[in-house]
Fold this protein.
Amino acid sequence: MTERSIISLDQVDKVFPVGDGKFYALKQIDLNFEEGEFAGLVGPSGSGKTTLLNVIGALDKPSRGRVSVLGQDVSQLRAKESAHLRSEKLGFIFQTHNLLPVYTVYENIELPLLLLRTPASERKKMIMETLEWVGLTDKWKSKPNKLSGGQCQRAAIARVMVKRPQIVLADEPTANLDAENSHMILKTMKKLNQELKTTFIFSTHDEKVIQYLVRKITLTDGKVTQDEIVNKLKESR
Amino acid sequence: MILFRLAFRNIKAAGLRTWLNTFVISLTFFAIIFLQGMYNGMYEQMVRVRIDDELGHGQYWHKNYDPFDPLTLEESHAPLPSAIQPYIQKKEAVPVLMVPAAIYPQGRLQSVVLKGIPSNQTILKLPTSEMQSSMQEIIPIMMGERMAKQTDLAIGDTVTARWRTNDGAFDALELELAHIFKTDVPAVDFGQIWLPLEHLQQMFDVSDHATIIIMQQEAGKQQINIQWDFHSLETLLADTKQFVQSKNAGGSIFFSLLLFLAMIAILDTQALSIFKRRKEIGTLMALGMTPEKVLGLFTLEGVMQGFFAAFVTAIWGGPIFWYMNKYGIRFSVSGDQYGLALSEILYPAYTFNLFAGAFMFVMVLLVIVSYWPVRHISRLLPSDALRGR
Ligand SMILES: Nc1ncnc2c1ncn2[C@@H]1O[C@H](COP(=O)(O)OP(=O)(O)OP(=O)(O)O)[C@@H](O)[C@H]1O
Ligand SMILES: [Mg+2]
């Protein structure tokens, strides 16, 4: 654990009960992430990528070990406290956009701000600004079912970015997108990473995504088997 | 506040489902209020007419008097206690003497009860002052419409009455029907002949005797120390109350069925939500909504439909309630055949308490059925919810 690390995992296990036995989805994970990282978790299906992101994001608790996020010990947090952590500091992007279908794009993006009790006067400005970033200004009134997959995913990114989280956890954000949209999304995220110093952690098997990574962490059967800085892209950073 | 906004949005988006739920809950509100209002109105009306025409506000009964046993009437009278006299003078009490008799309208025999009551009394609304004979020597009587119809007597007709005097001797006399009154209380009509008290006392050969004393005010009980049995208005009305309650129980079955339907509809919606909207629950939690708030949101969605329903009921039921309250409900069968003091037109009694009570009752149940199916949300792990488990 370094001084600058904002996320640290220390000997983390995640065990799921299966039938009579136990299944180790994560085994003895030791990882540190620093502010402003653009890191990816890669590995075959079932290797524990989603599980790891869930644990980091306080959506799930580690079975053993310590997970510290922004100085808070996630395994010790009560439901309400982890909700506050997520609301104030974290953002999630899922494989599917997970936009709420009955709300417009604008309202979906407004939701995190409502949860943060942001005053109405500031909300509008923040939302419109974020929509501009992701290039959806003209779609603010639309319901998600009127948008393309890529547009939905961009709206989901906007919903995360509008509150300027310190950490964004994205679980296969491009899995449902075509190449063009994938690149567009990744460029957007890269831009946010550079402009706002937001820490991004992805999970992915997508080669297109891997090109953008600065750090690539390989998981195999719940273990970290490789953790490397992808030099070429580090230069481009 | 955000929860209200979200809940409102969600149930609005649920469309048909919401309308159906609202419709059933609204019907339930309407049925409860309608039936309760009707029974309350029925009770109030029956109580009112019985106080007016029959009961006053409590009665003293001679200890032998039993309204269900006419055979004991001959032994059920005594001189008025002196303690009651001041009340009679002040017109706060009215004595009634009852004597069993037979009359012979058109030659047919019919048993009746002769009821003597001071013609200048003011406690009962019966028109006793109408008991004036056209001929000096003939005793004027009055009777209700039903009795007049049954005996086929008209005003001005005379009828022979035969009775046993206090010392056991038979006596007979012509009586003249001076007035026919209309009443909603069959008990003062069927088989009853009303005549001035002093005449009946003479005919029966007693002076100052009575069978019951009808009081103007309930307060009589504590103040008057006499050996007669006091029957409070409440005990006198017990059978009416029981009747309405049994009717009410019948009506309750009807609205309970609707209530049951409404609750099932909400239960079903809620149970379905928790299955179909797993991912939404997970997303809300990932966005930082506390599990309690998500639970609150889902519960609120159920409960809000109750508020909708109340509102909708006010819109379509309000005018109906208003109309019925103003013009009443006409019944094709009157209570007569059952001996009930029911009038033909019933005015339902809609009170604030009734509306508030029905609302509270339904809402409390709604909170329960809205909360129950979704209560485990607060224990749900966000990761499980997101995965759709
Ligand atoms: N709640 C759970 N109960 C039991 N087993 C689970 C649970 N969640 C995950 N697992 C198991 O843990 C392992 C890792 O799952 P995880 O979803 O993290 O994999 P992944 O790397 O994200 O895979 P993919 O690329 O397919 O999304 C899998 O074998 C999975 O079956
Ligand atoms: Mg996964």
DSSP finds eight helices and ten strands in chain A. The pocket of magnesium ion (ligand 2) is lined by residues A 49-50, 171, 203 (CB under 6 Å). Residues 26 and 222 of chain A are 4 Å apart (CA to CA). The beta strands of chain A are 5-18, 21-34, 38-42, 64-69, 72-73, 90-93, 167-171, 199-204, 215-220, 223-229.
